[in-house]
């Protein structure tokens, strides 16, 4: 092995069809390298959970192959289970067990688990060690779910929507835990529909929509390639005209890479805003329009997703 | 709960990353998962007040209630009413003098005098077994209900008492011996039946309901995402029933012995072995009932559907001999019938387990077949 990059998880051409009708995953290939944090980003119903559960060996794919450290799930499932730690999208652990008992129970399934006290300490659950699971807050429950994944001393961590529904502080706590695991040499695969989470946490990303990967790369790379560096958003009166002809007018401004409209706002993806903005102001004045709003911001994964699909990640 | 078998120093992560700290790593033995699953199950049961009530308290309440309602009365009291009239006082005097001289100490006559309306009303509502009216010509009229056994008995008894008081002499000398020994009373019949029913109830609910609840919570899925052996999980769930079984059997039998002076003729070991077989059998049936269900609501219906025929036919509260002969082979093939029969034979008659191989076989087949089918059809996710 040495310094050669080691592939930990790979799958090729995964397909999953439910009941012969619903195609949840339609030909998806991935490879995840040792030590990286890889994210599957996509809206609800994109096929992220189906994909991660196939990789975890909990669902059989309709076709396609999964390899983890070179093994398939048929080869040596027990050994693979020793190597991976999983947090499912929704597990309600036994409410009448306390935190320590729950961690000890999960530890007992692995041949060489980590001491429960270390895990409690690492996930800041020591204070709650004797509290019943049913009495924990949402953030504490989610940390416990990750604790049950970490206690087996895994090499890969699979996390399905680990921070969905958590408050900002709990989310940040979990991010720190995931980074700490990665720092120790662990590999992480997570799904999320939060673009900020994907941007901050993941080394590489695959954007998933309708069961296929529509873009893959590092967050910066994806944003650069597809979103431009900056976004200029403005509203000018008489904007009601939505014809392509009209949008083309903005596309021809210097530095503009793409244009899209959201209601009455025009969004320009631009590489060099210092060239675009003066030209934009000129054009608006020349046409006798009145500028009602103008803002610029860094492009985000959300812009990448909208650029690729015409939809937002979360329609709320 | 000793989990640490050996302590060996081991590199925390990959050897390619020598900067990792060296941590002692404990090693779990083969049965560590099973032991923790069993212990977790017992803790959960202990912390669930409903379980404690339904499994332990409810059967005792049932036994106490039924035992008292159907207790063998120390003496048969005949309660009669004399309709108020000219001869009422004399009738009462005759009955009292007869009671004093009666050789049958077990039998007591309690007589009341009431006016005609109240007397007949009381008789119709079952407050009195018999109404007596003294006629003007010195004869008596009995009002009795041929559909009520105690009314029929009471007519015979009162007639004998009045005739004797009026001077009739017995033509034959007779004597009677009473027999209501422990072993032949209703409570002796009832307790083994309740024991069987309780083993069925708690096996079906304890295994079936718990499983579906865990499936619904995605906890089963979470468990199979670990290296946990699936057989360990099912084994732990079933054997947690054995621990409860010992407590259930002990409580019910202890209650019967202490409160109703019941006698256990067979060996305690036989009773416990039978209880284990019953618990495991119904654990298997519970497993089968719950092997596919996704929702608690659907498994509750299924469990009741499976248990209903056995509540009725398997002789819990009354003997299944009352059902038509045609139904008997079907009834005897039910697992609860086999368990109840075996428990009664062992507890009341002191029969050995060896002499009841047929019943044990019925139980083993139900348990074994259910277990195998449940494993084949089981849905973990």
Structural overview:
The complex is a heterodimer of chains A (316) and B (381). The relative contact order of chain A is 0.14. Chain A contains 11 helices and 13 strands. With 316 residues, chain A is of the alpha/beta class. Chain A is 34% helix and 28% strand. Chain A has a 6-stranded mixed β-sheet, with helices on both faces. Chain A has a 4-stranded antiparallel β-sheet with strand order 11-12-10-13, covered by helices on one side. In chain A, strand 8 (204-209) and strand 9 form a beta hairpin. Chain A has helices at residues 48-55, 77-83, 99-107, 116-122, 138-150, 168-183, 195-201, 219-227, 244-251, 273-286, 301-309; strands spanning 7-18, 22-33, 37-41, 63-68, 84-87, 156-160, 187-192, 204-209, 212-217, 230-236, 256-262, 265-270, 291-298. Chain A has 2 domains: 7-218, Rossmann fold; 229-298, 2-Layer Sandwich (Alpha-Beta Plaits), CATH 3.30.70. The two termini of chain B are 29 Å apart. Chain B has a 4-stranded mixed β-sheet. A two-stranded antiparallel ribbon of chain B has the order 1-2. Chain B has 381 residues and is an alpha/beta fold. Chain B has helices at 32-46, 49-69, 88-101, 116-124, 149-165, 186-216, 219-224, 230-260, 268-289, 296-313, 328-332, 335-349, 357-377, and strands at 6-11, 22-27, 76-83, 107-114, 130-134, 140-143. Chain B is 59% helix and 10% strand. At the A-B interface, helix 2 and helix 3 of A face strand 2, helix 1 and helix 7 of B.
């Amino acid at each position: 092995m040495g310094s050669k990059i080691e592939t930990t998880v790979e799958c090729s051409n995964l397909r999953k069809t439910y009941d012969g009708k619903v195609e949840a995953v339609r030909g998806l290939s991935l490879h995840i390298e040792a030590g990286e944090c890889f994210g599957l980003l996509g809206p609800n119903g994109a096929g992220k959970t189906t994909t991660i559960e196939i990789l975890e060996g909990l669902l059989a794919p309709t076709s396609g192959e999964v390899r983890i450290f070179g093994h398939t799930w048929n080869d040596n499932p027990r050994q693979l289970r020793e190597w991976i730690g999983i947090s499912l999208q929704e597990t309600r652990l036994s409410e009448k067990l306390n935190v320590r008992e729950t961690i000890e129970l999960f530890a007992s399934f692995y041949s060489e688990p980590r001491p429960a006290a270390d895990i409690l300490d690492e996930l800041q659950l020591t204070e709650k060690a004797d509290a019943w699971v049913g009495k924990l807050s949402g953030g504490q429950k989610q940390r416990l779910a990750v604790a049950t994944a970490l206690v087996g001393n895994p090499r890969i961590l699979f996390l399905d929507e680990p921070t969905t529904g958590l408050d900002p502080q709990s989310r940040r706590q979990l991010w720190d835990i995931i980074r700490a695991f990665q720092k120790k040499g662990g590999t992480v695969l997570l799904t999320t529909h939060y673009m900020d989470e994907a941007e901050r946490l993941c080394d590489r990303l695959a954007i998933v929509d309708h069961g296929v990967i529509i873009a893959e790369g590092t967050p910066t790379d994806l944003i650069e390639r597809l979103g431009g560096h900056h976004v200029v958003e403005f509203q000018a009166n008489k904007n009601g005209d939505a014809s392509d002809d009209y949008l083309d007018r903005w596309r021809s401004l210097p530095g503009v890479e793409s244009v899209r409209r959201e209601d009455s706002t025009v969004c320009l993806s631009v590489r060099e805003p210092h060239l675009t903005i003066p030209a934009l102001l000129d054009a608006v004045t020349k046409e006798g329009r009145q500028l009602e709003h103008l803002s610029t911001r860094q492009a985000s994964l959300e812009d990448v997703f909208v650029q690729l699909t015409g939809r937002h990640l979360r329609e709320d | 709960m000793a989990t640490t078998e050996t302590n060996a120093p081991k590199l925390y992560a990959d050897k390619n990353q020598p900067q990792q700290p060296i941590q002692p790593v404990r090693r779990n033995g083969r049965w560590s998962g099973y032991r923790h699953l069993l212990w977790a199950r017992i803790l959960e049961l202990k912390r669930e007040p409903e379980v404690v009530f339904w499994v332990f308290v409810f059967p005792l309440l049932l036994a106490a209630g039924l035992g008292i309602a159907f207790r063998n009365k120390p003496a048969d009291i005949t309660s009669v009413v004399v309709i108020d009239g000219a001869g009422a006082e004399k009738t009462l005097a005759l009955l009292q003098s007869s009671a004093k001289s009666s050789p049958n100490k077990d039998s007591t006559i309690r007589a009341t005098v009431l006016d005609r309306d109240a007397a007949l009303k009381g008789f119709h509502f079952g407050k009195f077994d018999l109404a007596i009216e003294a006629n003007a010509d010195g004869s008596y009229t009995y009002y009795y209900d041929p559909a009520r056994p105690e009314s029929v008995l009471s007519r015979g008894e009162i007639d004998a008492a009045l005739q004797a008081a009026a001077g009739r002499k017995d033509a034959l000398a007779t004597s009677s011996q009473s027999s209501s020994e422990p072993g032949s009373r209703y409570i002796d019949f009832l307790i083994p039946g309740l024991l069987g029913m309780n083993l069925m109830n708690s096996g079906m609910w304890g295994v079936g309901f718990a499983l579906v609840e865990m499936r619904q919570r995605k906890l089963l899925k979470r468990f199979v995402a670990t290296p946990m052996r699936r057989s360990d999980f099912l084994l732990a769930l079933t054997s947690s029933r054995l621990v409860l079984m010992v407590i259930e059997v002990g409580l019910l039998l202890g209650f019967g012995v202490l409160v109703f002076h019941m006698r256990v003729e067979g060996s305690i070991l036989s009773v416990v072995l039978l209880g284990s077989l019953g618990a495991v059998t119904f654990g298997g049936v519970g497993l089968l009932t719950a092997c596919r269900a996704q929702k608690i609501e659907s498994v509750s219906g299924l469990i009741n559907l499976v248990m209903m025929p056995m509540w009725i036919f398997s002789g819990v509260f009354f003997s299944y001999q009352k059902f038509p002969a045609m139904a008997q082979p079907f009834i005897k093939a039910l697992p609860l019938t086999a368990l109840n029969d075996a428990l009664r034979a062992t507890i009341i008659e002191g029969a050995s387990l060896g002499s009841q191989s047929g019943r044990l076989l019925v139980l083993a087949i139900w348990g074994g077949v259910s277990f195998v089918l449940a494993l084949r059809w089981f849905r973990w996710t």
